[in-house]
């Protein structure tokens, strides 16, 4: 059956954009520029711990608890370094604020293969397009710097909306903004829980970007799985 789609919503991280290098390497390079020596493996482990603890204590960048996302991230970075044995608070603040700015730009992000062409083709075919992402408010800037922003009518981040995927309200906001019924919309993302299942729970269609051999969730029919983004058009134009 032909899908009568009018709206496509998109996840960003690891769907359209990915980090140019592992996070630990960016952190190590910035530390070194400030004369601080630390091991990338230790930093990567420390980051997972610090990020996890901050996310549990202050969900969605502390949006409901009076934190700015900048303060949220600065705290995560400083805690990451403290857990790796670096305790000079003055230098940690400098490193953290510099990293916050750097992750705002195309310096640390690259467009996934096929993303630019797929977005262009979808626009040419007349689909309306929006972003639904658990990102902080730097996302508009990141998308502009990576030359993707012009494809989208709107960019919804969990920080702006106040709800993070898989909360249905962030998807409902996208549908409301576009005045499109759930069955006329499809979401594209790489997370089974936050993207695929969450969008379907609102009545939207959904496509799961998943490289071959990544965890096989049995509930995903093969026609909903995208081995690469370039597979999307063939599926929605059937």
TrEMBL record:
User: Which Gene Ontology cellular component terms are annotated?
Assistant: nucleus
One Pfam family matching this protein: Hydrolase
**CDD domains on file:** HAD_dREG-2_like
InterPro entries on file: HAD-like_hydrolase_domain, HAD-like_sf, HAD-SF_hydro_IA, HAD-SF_hydro_IA_REG-2-like, HAD-SF_hydro_IA_REG-2-like_cap, HAD_sf
**Family to which this protein belongs:** Belongs to the HAD-like hydrolase superfamily.
Sorted alphabetically, which NCBIfam families does this protein's record hold? DREG-2, HAD-SF-IA-v1, HAD-SF-IA-v3
Q: Protein name, please?
A: Haloacid dehalogenase-like hydrolase domain-containing protein 3
Recorded source organism is Circaetus pectoralis (black-chested snake-eagle)
| Taxonomic classification | Eukaryota, Metazoa, Chordata, Craniata, Vertebrata
Instruction: Give the gene name.
Output: Hdhd3
């Amino acid at each position: 059956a032909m899908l009568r789609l009018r709206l496509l919503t998109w996840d960003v991280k690891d769907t359209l954009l990915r980090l140019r290098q592992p996070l630990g390497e960016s952190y190590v390079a910035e530390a070194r520029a400030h004369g601080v020596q630390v091991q990338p493996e230790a930093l990567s482990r420390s980051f997972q711990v610090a990020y996890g603890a901050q996310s549990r204590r202050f969900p969605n960048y502390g949006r409901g608890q009076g934190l700015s996302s900048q303060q949220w991230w600065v705290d995560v970075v400083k805690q990451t370094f403290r857990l790796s044995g670096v305790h000079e608070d003055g230098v940690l603040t400098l490193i953290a604020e510099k990293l916050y700015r750097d992750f705002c730009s195309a310096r640390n992000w690259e467009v996934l293969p096929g993303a630019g062409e797929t977005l262009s083709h979808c626009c040419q075919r007349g689909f309306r397009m929006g972003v639904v992402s658990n990102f902080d408010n730097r996302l508009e800037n990141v998308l502009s710097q990576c030359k993707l922003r012009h494809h989208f009518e709107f960019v919804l981040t969990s920080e702006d909306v106040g709800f993070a995927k898989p909360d249905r309200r962030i998807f409902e906001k996208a549908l409301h903004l576009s005045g499109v019924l759930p069955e006329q919309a499809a979401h594209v993302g790489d997370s089974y829980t936050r993207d695929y299942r969450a969008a379907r729970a609102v009545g939207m269609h959904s496509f799961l970007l998943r490289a071959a051999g990544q965890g096989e969730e049995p509930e995903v029919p093969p026609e909903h799985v995208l081995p690469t983004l370039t597979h999307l058009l063939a599926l929605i134009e059937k």
